[in-house]
Amino acid sequence: MSMKLLTKLATAIADGSVKIVDLTHTLDPDFPVIILPPEFNQCARFRMEELSAYDHRGPAWKWHNLTLSEHTGTHFDAPSHWISGRDLPDNSVDAIAPEQFIGPVVVIDCTLGAAMDEDFELTAPFISDWESNYGKIPNGCWVLMRTDWSKKSGRNYLNMREDGPHSPGPTPEAIRFLIEERDIRGFGTETVGTDAGQGGHYNPPYPAHYFLHGAGKYGLQCLANLDQLPPTGAILLAAPLKIKDGTGSPLRVMAMIPGGNT
Amino acid sequence: MTNPLLPPPRKDPQKRTVSPTRPPEARSRAALGLSAAAAEGRFALQQCTECGKIQYPPRDACSNCLSTELRWKDTDCLGSILAETRLRTSIKPYFRERTPWRTGTVKLDSGPVIICHLHGDCERNGRVQIINRLDRSGQAVLFALPQKRSLYMEDDPQLRAMTSDPKHRRILITDARNPNTPYIAKSLAAAGASLIFIGESENWRPYPGQEAVAQLDKVEVLPLDVTDTQSVQKLAGAIGGKTDILINNAHFVRPGGVFVRGDTAMAKEEIEVNYFGLMRLAQAFGPAMCTRTADGENAAVAWVNILSVHSLSNNPQYGCYSASNAAARSLSQSLRAEFRTAGLRVMNIYCGPTEDDWYQPLPPPKVSPETVAKNLVEGLRNGLEETYCGDVAKDLFERFRESPHILEREMTLAGEGP
Amino acid sequence: MQRRRSYEGIVLTAPFSMPYQRYSIKTAHWWIARALKGSLSLAGLQPADVDGFTVSSFTLFPDTAVGLTQHLGLSPRWLDHIPMGGASGVVALRRAARAVQCGDSDIVACVAGDTNHIDSFRLMLSSFSRFASDASYPYGYGGPNTNFALLTDRYMQEFGATREDFGRICVAQRKNALLNPGAVMKKPLSLSDYMKAKTISDPIALFDCVMPCAGSDAFLVMRQEEAERRKIPFARIAGTIERHNAHAEDPIQLRGGWTVDVDELWDMADCSPDAIDVVQTYDDYPVIVAMQIEDLGFCGKGEAPHFLSGKDMTIKGDFPHNTSGGQLSAGQAGAAGGFIGLVEAIRQVSQQAGGTQVGGAKIALVSGFGMINYDRGVCSGAAILKAANP
User: Fold this and answer.
1) CATH code that applies to domain C10-119+214-230
2) Taking every pair of C-alpha atoms in chain A, what is the biggest distance, in angstroms?
3) Is residue A5 part of a domain?
4) What are the residue ranges spanned by the domains of chain B?
């Protein structure tokens, strides 16, 4: 039975009836990372040092050494990333069961709000509204907040000002709703973090990080191409690198969606 | 009187770039004392500590009393020309390409007779002031200037051959984020720089004065992140062939020594910017600059590093940062050796604590960005290799020169313990 | 000060000059061997007859006189290496004469020679002296051209000398050189050629400068009875002086070390300048010729231009000077430049000068000057040679 299912899936991917969408930004030295107050250690920027390029340093091969943080580029947050999740079992990327890396995903479209308000808040009522259109968010599902923020570049992406960055994100109530009422698998955004740019001013600060990881849920950030996903019905593949005690990991995030001829 | 140097025409792309040649480099160990003084722009001669006789050429024993106790001492620099000549030919290609070359014999008021280069404005048998400069071999030469300054005297071709004058040169300042950048750019523009490139890292992350820098006279802001090899290579690909002076003011500073930090993350940033940044810049820009050190009036001429004076002796309050600067200083010595055959000069500006945020808790005196800019332009005009910027740096260097070991103890005093 | 002893009984013989060449692919060893062999054959001697040996050369590195003994198969009981450039000839004769006089040696061969490869002058300059490397070459690397340009400039300002004054010296020597088949310069030189020549380093122009070349010269020093027994023509040493680093307090060189000892020179030789039949000065640049004429007593300081303007300096003239053409026209063969005047003086007073012979020359003055260590020549020397029967 399952053999048949997988064969069908392979055929569907091959014939385009299941499409693969890449939700990942290219790892690029110029891609912004989160900025903390300067007295704190900072997230490493992505860097690539050429070791050889078919030259005197290695005549037949080209390769690079990479420098990056667990939280550079499109990346996965494990529960151990936040203090609220530090004592949970299996809270690091290497310990998470692999089934968790593949699962259903819903996409909440916040583009209109984010276009009008850079500090747009995803609220619990907004989620309820969404559910009234698309149905209840199933348990164990990834929830992605679509803002089209990934289409911004350069300084508009972090949107850093003297009082800090400004970008949309969930309110504490919205996150608690998703966790407590819907028992989601994780929450993902197009911005540099799962929290709003000004998320430090909520109570608790950075509620998405605090509540998600405290509840053993995962985060995905710096996602792209969410506009290509349907509100419901897609499958998300998000497998972090197996880093011992890793609190997160850059990764290739992909979604399977129904193709044109379904 | 020296005529003002006109802006050089655009280069004829069909013309071969002139290969760098050098004046003679060979010197005795004693004569290197003169070069060490020239690196700092000082005119110093050996003086016998027993009989007081001032000596020249440099030697190992007093020509009056045979004492071997000769000390380098800053000396009165006035004298009179006794004889002069203009070389029309030389067996050394460096001079052959630059003839006629004016040299002369000068009797110093302090006693010795010197053979020296003569500035074009020196009068026949006139009174002169002697300066001690590095020539393109990186060794000291004595240079006679007329006592009365003339308006464009820096443009004298023989003098310009010794200095790193910014006039008509194209200059890269590597870090737009450094608060000293606008001051340096303004001073260079005032000194006649023809084009000032300013490297800007992480354009996505704003910083104070970002717009103001871009609007400065003669300035062009270009992407450059010294921690990113590809970024450095990309910029070198674009402007490496027309960078005549490179000023590396990129720096990363955080307080703290080894224990306070507790990890190596900040130290890595410091090393990435302050040490590897310099290395990346040198690897990307150095080779092209080295091929252009004889490329006409705006030939590549100097490489400037702005370093902490604590690169000489660690300040434990900024222990890890000091260490990264010590690494950079050491690397600058390697660069100096590697650039030497091309005649490209490395100038290190050593600063004490500046007005930057990261030195906020420190007491005055601090170095203002205006002072850094002024020192830098003066250093280039005097062709220096080493200059100490601000009172703290000068004080610390004097103590370093006297005894690095005593200085280290002074810097690392722990205070009264239990 | 103790008066120096006479050189009575010691003679100079067998002056030999290899014809000079502008460039040579041979080594200094080769040139020295040829001059030594030439000198020995003039005297009818074998190498084994030589028991004293002096060598002067700039291009022998890494060898010295020591290496040459083995290289040339000599076993002297007295050996000297004399690195004194233009003063080498006079100094060699002084050292050798005392050695023979005191019985340290019977026959001393004094040889100077240098080769001149395409780049060897530049290489030689680069390691000439510490003071030159430190304090004169960095200023244009003109070598002696720069030094003598400066000295000439000061001399002209001080004494009102003109380029024509120096030109007459060079023109007369060229006439003499045309009679010396070994000279490098073969074309006549007029005063107008001299004046029109390209400037090398103001006020010095092309014909003020010696031409570096390859060459070698040698002579033998022995007791007079030895020369007479072997029937070898000889010259007697009437008087000789040397002085180093004289007048260090002079800010610029307008006089040489000769002035310190010149009275003793004439006393020893028991004659005065007007007795001299032929003068051989050291002449890498004409200004130093003028200084020697003054410092050796032919005229007062600064008067050489005027003194020489009344003289004919050619072989047939009333003041025969540098009769083989001197270095200015025969060429400067390195340290052999310190020998060229001396071997010519020996030939003159022993009547062996051939085409350049000054008729009836009995007394010759030869002078040496060498080693621009920094801003001036440090070594100076002079000798008065007399014929066997004056």
Assistant:
1) 3.40.47.10
2) 64
3) no
4) 32-160, 170-411
Which of chain C's residues have a Cβ under 8 Å away from the Cβ of B137?
138
Query: What is the model's pLDDT at position A1?
Result: 55
- The answer to whether residue B227 neighbours chain A at the CB level (below 8 Å) is yes
Query: Range of A130's domain?
Result: 17-42+69-258
pLDDT in tens, C288-339: 999 999 999 999 999 999 999 999 999 999 999 999 999 999 999 999 999 9
Give the containing element (helix H, strand E) for C67. Answer: helix C65-72
Residues on A contacting B at a C-beta cutoff of 8 Å: 29-30, 32, 35, 38-39, 41-42, 45, 47-50, 153-155, 157-158, 160-161
Contact of C141 with C132, CB cutoff 8 Å? no
Total structural domains in chain A? 1
CATH number 3.40.50.920 is the correct assignment for the domain at B170-411: no
Provide, as residue numbers in chain C, all residues whose Cβ is less than 8 Å from the Cβ of B97. Answer: none
Instruction: Report how far residue C124's alpha carbon sits from residue C24's, in angstroms, rounded to the nearest whole number.
Output: 15
Chain A with chain B: Cβ pairs closer than 8 A: 44
Do the domain assignments include residue A6?
Answer: no
Pull the structure tokens for residue B272: 């990435």
Contact status, residue C325 vs residue C173, Cβ threshold 8 Å: yes
For an interface test with B, which of A25, A35, A47, A166 has the most B Cβ atoms less than 10 Å from its Cβ?
A47
B266 touches chain A (CB under 8 A): yes
Chain B residues close to C122, C-beta within 8 Å: 91-92
* Angle subtended at Cα C255 by Cα C249 and Cα C260, rounded to the nearest 5 degrees: 80
Asked if the Cβ–Cβ distance from B266 to A41 is below 8 Å, we say yes
Residues of chain B with pLDDT under 70: 415, 417-418
- ipTM for the complex shown: 0.94
Spatial CB neighbours of A137, under 8 Å, sequence gap ≥ 6: A106, A127, A131, A143, A178, A182, A184
Q: Would the CB atoms of B206 and A42 count as touching at under 8 Å?
A: no
In a domain, A63, yes or no: no
Q: Which long-range contacts (CB under 8 A, 24 or more apart) does C92-96 make?
A: C92/C54, C92/C56, C92/C339, C93/C12, C93/C219, C93/C221, C93/C237, C93/C240, C93/C342, C93/C383, C94/C240, C94/C242, C94/C381, C94/C383, C95/C54, C96/C52, C96/C54, C96/C221
In a domain, A214, yes or no: yes
Residues 221-260 of C with CB under 8 A from B: 248, 251-252
Chain A adjacent subunits, 3+ CB pairs under 8 A: B
Of B58, B86, B95, the CB nearest to C141: B95
Question: Using the beta-carbon criterion (under 8 Å), do B202 and A30 form an inter-chain contact?
Answer: yes
What tens digit of pLDDT does each residue of A98-116 get? Answer: 999 999 999 999 999 999 9
Query: What is the distance between the alpha carbons of residues B67 and B47, in angstroms, rounded to a whole number?
Result: 10
Say whether A81 is catalytic.
yes
Sequence ranges of the domains in chain C? 10-119+214-230, 127-211+237-384
CATH number, domain with residue A75: 3.50.30.50
CATH node for C127-211+237-384: 3.40.47.10
Contacts 24+ apart (CB under 8 A), A32-40: A32/A157, A32/A158, A32/A192, A32/B202, A32/B204, A32/B205, A33/A69, A33/A71, A33/A72, A33/A73, A33/A192, A34/A71, A34/A192, A34/A193, A35/A158, A35/A160, A35/A165, A35/B205, A38/B254, A39/B254
Q: Note whether B56 contacts C136, CB cutoff 8 Å.
A: no
Residue of A71, A75, A81, A209 marked active site: A81
What mean pLDDT is predicted for residues A15-43?
A: 95
DSSP C240: E
User: Which residue is it, tokens 């790892």?
Assistant: A27
Is C touching A (3+ C-beta pairs, cut-off 8 A)?
A: no
Sign, Cα dihedral of C144, C145, C148, C150: negative
